[in-house]
Every structure is written in C-alpha cells, then in structure tokens.
Amino acid sequence: MGTRFTLDWGTTYEVDVLDLGLACCGVEVMAALHGRGDDQDRPADLGVRPVSGAGAPERAHVLVVSGTVTDVMLPAVLATYERMPEPRYVLSVGACSNTGGPYWDSYSVTKGVDQVLPVHVAVPGCPPRPEALLEGLVALHRMVTGEVAA
Ligand code: SF4
C-alpha cells in the first residue's frame, strides 16, 4: 500500500494554486492537482484548490511552474507572477523548470526559473511523479507554517 498524504492546511485554510504547465511536466501536475474522480487524496479535498482562467493569477498564492521555460516564454511567466497577490510562493516542478533539464545547453531555454523567480520548493524528476508534486506541496506548507526554515 502506497504512502498516503495529509495536507494539514486543509483543516486550517485553503490555498489557490495556479499551474503554469509549459511542457510535459504540466501533464503530471494536472494529474496530481485534479486527482482521479473521488480519490480522497485529491489535493482539492485537502485544501489545495487549482485555479484557472483569466483572473487566476489575481487569486493564486502558489505558482507551479512545470515544464520547459523558454526564454521567449519568460516574460509571460514573470508577468503571471507579478499579478499574484502577496504572499506568493513558487513551486518549480521538474528538471526543465529547475535547471533547463535535457535542454540545459539550448540557446533558447532558461537554465532554471529560479534565475528570475524566488523558488521556494523545487521538485526533481523528468517528469516527477504526481506523488512528488504532492510532497512538494507538503514541503511548501511546512515552510509557510514555520516548521522548516526557508
Ligand atoms: S523535465 Fe522532462 S518531463 Fe519535464 S518538461 Fe522537461 S523533458 Fe518534459
């Protein structure tokens, strides 16, 4: 039986999470954030509320950057972050977002979104499993609630 996750912020508050899925990692993030049907481990049941649509950045306090960040996309990533209200947190998901991943030596790829945004938690993998994203959210929650120093 696999590990089951409990996000304690589900009993204390809810957080709106905006997924900026830029490549294949974004598919894994979608699977993790939206779960499967009535899966009790679905983050939405535990206080993590995915948001989308035109006004999503103004509501979200957590930005998930998943996938390859190309230099041409970087202004849009920054603009999304700037529209988010304080406090705002960034979760970088996958090797591409963390370091450029398999495309680290490409002329057109940003070598880690942490070069331009304050990344609070980086989830490794190519792609990370959905469980890894959940672990990243748990780590972020611990950091925000002061259990772990930033
Ligand atoms: S880390 Fe791997 S799976 Fe994720 S976006 Fe890059 S190439 Fe795709």
Could you estimate the helical fraction of the residues in percent? 25-40%
Gyration radius, to the nearest Å?
15 Å
Shape call = globular
SSE run:
HEHEHEHEHEH
Judging by the overall fold, what is the CATH architecture? 3-Layer(aba) Sandwich
Q: Order of strands across the widest beta sheet? A: 2-1-3-4-5
Low-confidence stretches: 1-5
Task: Supply the CATH class.
Answer: Alpha Beta
The structure class reads alpha/beta
Number of spatially distinct domains = 1
Main sheet specs: 5 strands, parallel
General description of the model:
The chain has six helices and five strands. The longest helix has 15 residues, at 130-144. It has a single domain, classed as Rossmann fold (3-Layer(aba) Sandwich). Helix 2 (25-34) links the parallel strand 1 and strand 2 (48-51). The chain is an alpha/beta fold and 150 residues long. Bound molecules: iron/sulfur cluster (SF4). Iron/sulfur cluster binds at residues 23-25, 67-68, 94-96, 101-102, 126-127.
